[in-house]
Amino acid sequence: MSKTQRAGDDGYDLRYAWLALTVVTMASTLVSLNGSTLTIALPDVVRHFDASSTVASWMVLVFGLASTCVMLACGWLADRIGRRLMYLWGLGLFTLTSLLLGLAPNVWVLLGLQVVQAVAEAMLLANSAVIVSSVFPARMLGRSLGIYMAGFSVASLLGPTVGGALVTSFGWRWVFWFNVPLGLACLVLGAFVLRPMPATRGPSRFDLRGNILLILGLGGFIIALSAVSTEGWSSPLVAIGGSFAVIFVPLFLWTQHRGTDPLLDLTVFRNRQFSLAIGAGMINATATSAVVILIALYFQAVEDSTALEAGLLVLPLAIAKVVSSLSVGLLTRRMEADAVAALGAAATTAGLVLLMIGTSRTSPYAFLALGLVVIGIGSGIFAPANAAASLQSAAPDQLGRINAVRLTVQNSAWLAGTALGLTLLTAPLPPEIQRAVFSGSVSELGSGAVDQLGRGYLLAFAVMAVLSVFAIVAGLVGRPDGAGSIGATPGGTTLDREPAQRRSRSPLGSGSPAARDSARSIGAPRRRRARAPH
What we know:
Helices cover 74% and strands 0% of the residues. By secondary structure, the chain is mainly alpha-helical. Helix 11 runs parallel beside helix 16 (337-358). The chain is globular and about 65 Å long.
């Protein structure tokens, strides 16, 4: 055994683990950066294409919808063909679509290319946390996931400012073009660093029927929710989209329960800790996903800020998120992961209340800045702690599908939360003010329009704060119950039935010495587990 390997736990090569984490974090930062720069550039893109408020809202929603609908498929495919290959193909496709998006001749081509780029993002994100979890020992999982999540925080830090500077100096097309050299660099680095990751045991047949039902049900729900804000409750789109959601979402769940090779393995939810962690993540994503887009629109539509100024004004949230996400490793060594996540959700709730106050015309910017900082702290703590709580009980050969389940649920919630936030903000407004919100020109319509928009912000952040309270509750009741790994059976867990040598190398298996010794660092139960029968 090499010196590097001896430095690890149970044979883990920590030198390679840190290199792999670097590659994954760089690529994930790039993907997240892409979304946050577009958020700031949205008013300029809307004005360039003279887009309606409906089309403008879909510029925000279509990417998330497409990514969510293919996330499970990417998780299944990664388990079949290998995570390294899937990851590199995703990077290549993401880089190519970034180039083409900057050349889009009209808004419909732009939306279509966003769908393709969303598929590339899903190929990356369905593998990122899995790669990190598979190369680090359990005692370092909280720390490594915290660093990985910090990449998203860095994107939040740089994205609005970079996007604002690019739009102000060079035009909106450079919001996409700047991804190209960065994407190529990540692709080359990944090709040299990442080791082959062989396919794992997984279902041999892809659940195409389930994926179609998911697209119809989730797509219908998002269409209905977004149409309420722009078309009103009487719109045919609301009726049609709502009908699709009511019919196809239950049908999707029914087929997943009865299928032999389901797209969404519902058996993973038998693990109480996993289910509550996923529930907390879903609620938190719903409550916070619209924050950046709502505040960015506020500064441009109400305060007449440029894209660059708006990016700088939301900077406190990103800075706080970066700093707090790097502290999660310290917290999870003293507290269980779900308790740390509950702490983060509590801070997020307080920040949303401050934003509710700060978006009043009579409130100084200090209220907004403080609210953004508190939300940044809460989000930076919550995300990696919740990921650790979700993945720590997963069997090694199921990591791809389990992580895809986690991402699909949270992405669905993120998408629904964004649509909900935009709907709560704009639904009470007349059409001319709705379009002015997305084009950043509400202040030009007079103080009456600004006052109406202020009431929309009050409603939106109040509802989001109430939702965030439920994330606290889910984290507090999500105590580990010693149920074993995800996929447990009456005869023992999945890991219990594997050879002893494989168990000892599992980064997440409760049977490994590293996992037992590191219980406190990733939130595993402190009490002694009963020995499972062999």
